[in-house]
Amino acid sequence: MKKAVVVFTKVPKVGEVKTRLTEARGGILTPEEANAFYEASLLDVIDVCLSVGKVDVWICYNHDGDRTYLQSLLAEINKPQGIAGIFSDQGGSFDDCMQYASDFLLRPGKENRLADAVVIIGGDIPTLQPVILLDALEKLETLSSTEAGQKAALFNTSREGSPIGACIVEGACQEGGFSLIGLTCTTPFNFQKVFYNMDGITALDMLVDKAEAENIPFGRVEMIPDVDIPVDLASLMPVLRALEISAKHDKSIFVPQRTIAFLREIGLQSLALPPVKEAI
Predict the structure, then answer these.
(1) Are 137 and 182 in contact (CB under 8 A)?
(2) Quick check: 138 and 24 in contact, CB under 8 A?
(3) What pLDDT is attached to residue 198?
(4) For the whole prediction, is pTM greater than 0.85?
(5) Once rounded to an integer, what is the mean pLDDT over residues 27-44?
(6) CA distance 266 to 256
(7) Nearest 5°: phi and psi at 230?
(8) Do the beta carbons of residue 46 and residue 76 sit within 8 Å?
(9) Which CATH number describes the domain made up of 3-265?
(10) How far is CA 35 from the centre of its chain?
(11) 106: nearest Cα among 183, 29, 175, 190
């Protein structure tokens, strides 16, 4: 099975990324700091993907993003030659853009597909680890080969004689969302109403509902928190410290050095308020 990872991202631009972390939106960072944080996180995430090896890594950016600036930014990653390709989405809702990113590689029903299975992640998950990506990629292969996967497949296709069945793999994040999704080219799934629906259904619930409705084999990997609001940033910092010290004894751990360096540069720390004494 030919597998790919897509990093789905906006091109970093001051005032347009991580705005909920900024003081104007009740956060603690300036627009310039929020942009710098996202750039650091994005580059760390891409480096994690490239460290896995034996998988194509693609970058999908927003339709109106500055491709030239993105390419200059990508020159800073450890192995820029490892990027299989860069493409823009076609605009529209977040659901539309995710669908385009998936279809661009999987090309359902077509033999000229660029991948048999794809894992899509965001650029704001700096604690992502290689072992999580590998787990997602392995689960796609395993679930695809099951009898249930073969039955749920939209059409019959194979790679080197091995049939490719349907399946979905997810990695949850906070507040009922998910920060990783993987699926095969034969999976009867679309992103319609996953992120934007009028019924108040969380993205992860909608994902599960769609999998159940089509009897699609479903797998999960370790939770990967994203960073959207100040409490996410506060929760991130102790995890980064834990990764840094544990990497001294476990070479499989990826330390997001850029993200850590940025937070240290601006002197940001995560603190817990002491418990309030009850009045007697």
Answers:
(1) yes
(2) no
(3) 82
(4) yes
(5) 97
(6) 16
(7) -55, -40
(8) no
(9) 3.90.550.10
(10) 18
(11) 183
